[in-house]
Amino acid sequence: MPAESDGDPAHPADRARPLRNLWRFRPYLRPYAAQFCWLLAAALAGTGASLAVPLVVQRVVDGPIARHDPAGLVRLGGLALLLGLAEALLVFIRRWTQSSSSVGMEAAIRADVYAHLQRLPPGFHDRWQTGQLLSRVTNDLSVIRRFLSFGLLFLVLNLVTYAAVVVLLIRLHPALGALVAASAVPLFLISRRFGRYYHGASRRMQDQRGDVATLVEETAQGLRTMKAYGRGPELATRFGAGARALHDTGVAKGRLLARTSALFDLVPNLTLGVVLVAGATAAARGALTIGELVAFVSLQLMLTWPVQSLGWIIANGQEAATAADRIQEVLDIRPSIVDAPDAVALARPAVCGRLVFDRVSFHYPGAPTPVLREIDLTVEPGETLALVGATGTGKSTLLSLVPRLHEVTGGRITLDGHDLRELRLSSLRRLVGVAFEEPTLFSMSVWENLTLGRPDADEDDVRAALALAQADFVYKLPWGLATRVGEQGLTLSGGQRQRLALARAVLGRPALLVLDDPLSALDVHTEALVETALRRVLRDTTALLVVHRPSTVALADRVALLERGRITAIGTHSRLLADVPAYRAVLSAEPPTPSGAPTAPAAGPTTLHAGPATSGAGPATPYAGPTRPAAGPDERGLVLS
Amino acid sequence: MTAADATVRSPEDEPADEPVSRPGTTGRGTAGRPTRTAPDLDRWRGRATDPEADRSRAEEATPEALARLRARSRALLRDLLRPHRHRLGAAVGLLLAQNAAAMSGPYLVMLGIDRAIGPLRAGDSGPLVAIAGAFAAAALTEYAARRGFLALSARIGQAILLELRQRVYGHFLRLSVGFHERYTSGRMISRLTSDLDSIAELVDGGVDSLVLAALSILSVAGILLWLDPPLAAVTLLAFPFLFWLSRWFARASAGAYRRTREAVALLIVHFVESLRGIRAVQAYRREPRNQRIFAAVNDDYRRTSLHAFRLIATYSPGIKVIGNVTVAVVLGYGGTRVLGGGMEVGVLAAFLLYLRRFFEPMQELSQFYNSLQSATAALEKLAGVLDERPAVAEPARPTPLPAGPGRGAVEFRSVSFGYRADGPVLTGLDLTVPAGQTVALVGPTGAGKSTVAKLLARFHDPDAGTVHLDGVDLRDLADAELRRAVVLVTQENHLFSGSVAENIRFGRPGADDAAVRAAARAIGAHDFISALPDGYDTQVRRRGGRLSAGQRQLVAFARAFLADPRVLVLDEATSSLDVPTERLVQRALATVLRDRTALVIAHRLSTVETADRVLVLDGGRIVEDGPPDRLAGADGRYAALHRQWRDSLH
Ligand SMILES: Nc1ncnc2c1ncn2[C@@H]1O[C@H](COP(=O)(O)OP(=O)(O)OP(=O)(O)O)[C@@H](O)[C@H]1O
Ligand SMILES: Nc1ncnc2c1ncn2[C@@H]1O[C@H](COP(=O)(O)OP(=O)(O)OP(=O)(O)O)[C@@H](O)[C@H]1O
Ligand SMILES: [Mg+2]
Ligand SMILES: [Mg+2]
User: Fold this and answer.
1) Does A191 share its domain with A281?
2) Domain span holding position A619
3) Ligand 1 atom 28: residue of nearest CA
4) Fewer CB under 10 Å: which end of chain B, C or N?
5) Using a 6 Å CB cutoff, which residues line ligand 1?
6) Which ligand is nearest to the Cα of residue B454, counting in written order?
């Protein structure tokens, strides 16, 4: 199973302007602009000093020593020493400033990418593998860092050296100089070709690196499943394929670089050979003195290193360019769920909690059919509405619309008359307490896990929430609330995880509770205890629950039946149980009569196709109270019949 | 407990809904911001219950342990290089050829100027042609040798990386669940990505510079000694300084790079985990605090890298200082000797020229040394992982399971087990399940039901006592055989990204499409799968995110069905299903698994009622045992549970 790659723009590589995305990082360099100037100056001065040292030494040998002048020896020797120290100092300054600016910039980009990723909606994260994202913020960023701290600098230095030497050569001997200058043409062509090929290889390698990271991440997460089935060898094979792809690209890249680097060696050498032949002929004809030829050749030899290193620099640059593409690809995705410009914040005390779904439709991006169709639903303040439906009918999807983890694609949801999209996201999410069907815990202290959304909660709040969720076991953990929970909460039992997640949802009395099958992992006894406690809270909190069990339905004032993306019936549990066969089929605890396999669309007098009329059918006042026990036997009778 | 509370509170956490900063602002803000204190980070993460958390056992902080780890990582490196020694030899040969050709170029030019121009004037172009030919040959040799060397060294390097990557990955797979719980997935990812990348950096560049530099230093040293021994002796005075400087750098950078590895691992842990739980992060507006934590670990990484980079930024110019001072000293000393008439000017000039060539490659060498240090730090981490012995190890000499159909008897003999030394979960558990029996395990949450299941699937080994399958201790069974015989559907099922069919086929990799479909049909998953846009080929995406919770459970169930083991352990495998679907699954269970042993953990007593036998687990012991109807009739725990459950149904 190859890791599904990015999903989105596979390779929008801007071929025409491969460096565009790299260039877009310049704001991150701006704080270091002054440093960069210093750096360049130090680098140039350092190069100057390193050239000057041998010259001075030569002068010492030719001058004072040859002339037996001890004072001159001391003077010029001292100068050589000073120049040598200055050279080292300049190198030191260059490297020192370079290191702080490059890692500073890297960290800044990384923090911004992370901030951006946190703003992107869950829909994005469903499609993008964490491994791909991870390789972008680690490996790709360090490639860019390396280019900005070394590659770029040497590119500038080498080009300057090249140009300077060529100018000197032309001044020394125009014809031969022009010949050397002409050698820039094949060099340019080779560079361009190489750059083009290398661009592709480098992108491929980075993508494959992300795929390998993804495979590792998946293995880590699916480790128990892997162990349970003993599929280690299969996973190792799969990983081996990924690693081998990376290896193959690496070898191909190496071969490409080898060919080009060798060519970058060959061209100056051949030029040198041509200069030698032409120069010797010219010297033989007397058009050039031998001294001039020697000087010319020595100077030309200085070109070898800058040209030779060009291969590495271009490779480095291309890698940085594709790395920049990969990062910008992520940064270019605009978060789809954001605050409207004039969004308002609602204060908790001002919220009554009337939640209305007004012809709400939703379909997942790319899915052919909508999951939810024209849902009309009203949850009155303080009311508890249970959502019932077969597996995969869209209950969880419906709940995720409330804290705007997904955005409705049609219709609107209002809270106390405000369209959710007109509320500040942070304000809305503060009002809503959510428990997902999978308790999402993080490997941090129990306290942090509980106060995820309410860092201001105090000890009493936490204690109350824990008591409600029957999660007092946390006090018995080795370090109490300071104990670190294992990754994904896996060092706790299933029921313990779920109770923690529930405690987190009810912590701080949110105005709106959205609970997705919150008691599925609890034993009957604990479930009853939690229900009793929860009922107290639910009395004055608007709540939307997804429920699979008849036992949990008892919490709800009214129940809505979701079928094929529509609400087909709303009413109290006993009414629906009595009148709606489809409801009975989904929820009754007893095996249905032999025929009852496909759930027929609900019909009948009490089936309410939602709409404003619903509020009349379901009493908004707490219902679960005294009438329930009395209704019991009747309902049983109904179901069994 | 209250003290613990106090320590977790982070007073500076303001409740305000601080908007997440816009791109282009956060980072630079954080980069300059004073680093946050370590205590806060500790508090946020909470206290690990295992003191060994966060590292492999080999990575203790004592100097001896560090030295041991270093030695081990060197041994690992040798081990990795050994299969390539012939190719390495060839690469060095090519490098020497290239170098010889490169050296001969300038020499031929000088030769041409000295020897060819004269004859040319005389009309004899022979020498020039000969030299030009030799020059062309040298250039082509250099081209070929360089190309060959670079390609070959890339091949060697990549092969080593591939081997290392697969070796470490394979080892991670062998390590026990307990190890992974301790080590965390983020750290595992960091080992296999970031650490390997820093080794790749060494492999990509560097090696040729090492060989060339060493080569030229040695040859130049020889020339220096030959030119003038006293001056060479003065030059040698530089060596103690070089040695001292290098030793300082080696020590300092080893620690610095080790810290960067740890810092980047923490960064990856936080990154991966927070993005994995992004729904909770966003629903609970955790972004600002996450961002602060990320900024802290990011800044930690920045600081540690900066420290390491500054070390090399000091070391490399330091070498330059030593070189340049030596040049000056030689100049002074040699100059005085020339003045005193003890030495020829020409010799001094030549000596000085060569001296420069002697120190120049030292720069490259220092670069290489730096990459080596960084790679070694990473290699140490990997060696630490490779050194970790699986706590749940495969037997050296496995016992085969007795052959024959209809087996699958399970026996727990006074099994005690705890995840921590001080907290036993199971104490002296005795349990015998005859082959073919369906046993339901019930009990309050946290009673240890999943623990029993995990022991049976040998995720852990018992602290005391033994678990047997058909009379064979699980510890004596080969892993492949055990997994064929026992399959556990865990409470937290996991789908791999890939298609639905691939996920079902995970249960039996050789199964054909018909078998996959049959398994899905048997448990009632076929209908929903066929309704998906691409049917069985629909991609389930990351962690099966494309499916609903119940659908995921169905796929996981179909997978177990396809595996068709002797013993099937179901840990809350139907908790997210709606009632009709659950019933369908149960019916399938009843028929298909009639002659299989099954251990079913469930809170829904509807599931339990179909079992042959019910066990009530509480406080790590079995407190009740018997057929469901008899227990329901008696006056015990199960009867109470059962009554409560019946009452709750309406
Ligand atoms: N990211 C997604 N992209 C496309 N389709 C999806 C996605 N997530 C879920 N679906 C589909 O949408 C439908 C509704 O899923 P949802 O999770 O809301 O179901 P549910 O009612 O909560 O089911 P369950 O009871 O099993 O939890 C399912 O058929 C599922 O396959
Ligand atoms: N990996 C682990 N590390 C440390 N402690 C653990 C680990 N797994 C479980 N525990 C602890 O061991 C005890 C038993 O857990 P177990 O998962 O067996 O319970 P359970 O009976 O399956 O409960 P549930 O019905 O809630 O799933 C619990 O107190 C739990 O906190
Ligand atoms: Mg759901
Ligand atoms: Mg469990």
Assistant:
1) yes
2) 355-423+557-588+605-641
3) A392
4) N
5) A 126, 364, 367, 371, 389, 391-397, 437; B 545-551, 576
6) 2
Q: Give me the CATH number covering residue B507.
A: 3.40.50.300
pLDDT tens for each residue of A606-637: 333 333 333 333 333 333 333 333 333 333 32
A411 lies in the same domain as A300? no
- The Cα of B74 is separated from the nearest Cα of chain A by a number of Å equal to 23
Q: Are residues A180 and A74 in the same domain?
A: yes
Specify the 3-state DSSP secondary structure of B493. Answer: coil
Joined tokens for residue A518: 């919150």
Same domain, B149 and B224: no
Chain A residues touching B489 at Cβ < 8 A: 228
What distance in Å separates residue A576's CA from the closest CA in chain B? 12
> Quick check: is A594 in a domain?
no
Report the range of poorest mean pLDDT among A173-177, A477-481, B211-215, B613-617: B211-215
Out of B5, B285, B328, the one facing A426 most closely (by C-beta) is B285
Q: Is residue B9 scored above 70 in pLDDT?
A: no
Q: In what order do the strands lie in the sheet with B464-469?
A: B423-433, B410-420, B464-469, B472-473
Nearest CA in chain A to B314: A92
Both B297 and B369 in one domain: the answer is yes
Residue A11 lies in a domain: no
Residue A233 and residue A172 share a domain:
yes
Domain check: are B324 and B254 in the same one?
A: yes
* Predicted local confidence at residue B261, as pLDDT: 92
- Rounded to whole angstroms, the Cα distance separating B322 from A87 reads 12
- Residue A456 contacts B, CB cutoff 8 Å: yes
Q: Are A120 and A126 in contact, with CB atoms under 8 Å apart?
A: no
Question: Is B552 a domain residue?
Answer: yes
* Best to test chain A binding among B149, B268, B578 (most A CBs inside 10 Å): B578
B33 found inside a domain: no
Res. B411 pLDDT band, cuts 50 70 90: very high
- Which of B244-247's residues contact partners 24+ apart within 8 Å by CB, and which partners? B245/B315, B245/B318, B245/B319, B245/B322, B246/B315, B246/B369
Residue in A194, A313, A443 to test binding to B, most B beta-carbons within 10 Å: A443
The percentage of residues in chain A with a pLDDT greater than 90, rounded to a whole number, is 46
Number of domains in chain A: 2
pLDDT above 80: residue A59 = no
Do B366 and B448 belong to one domain?
A: no
Residue A496, ligand 2, Cβ within 6 A: yes
Q: What is the pLDDT of residue A365?
A: 87
Ligand 3 centre and the CA of A572: distance in Å?
22
Q: What is the pLDDT of residue B569?
A: 93
Domain that holds residue B136: 58-174
- Full DSSP string of A101-140: HHHHHHHHHHHHHHHHHHHS-HHHHHHS-HHHHHHIIIII
The answer to whether B235 faces chain A, any CB pair under 8 Å, is: no
A211 C-alpha vs ligand 3 centroid, how far in Å? 29
Q: pTM for this one?
A: 0.89
Does A529 reside within a domain?
Answer: no
Q: Measured between alpha carbons, how far is A144 from A136 in angstroms, rounded to an integer? A: 11
- d(CA A45, CA A562) in angstroms, rounded, equals 76
Is residue B501 situated within a structural domain?
A: yes
pLDDT single digits (tens) A476-485: 998 889 998 8
**Alpha carbon of A547 to ligand 3 centroid (Å):** 9
- ipTM value of the model? 0.88
Residue B160: pLDDT over 80: yes
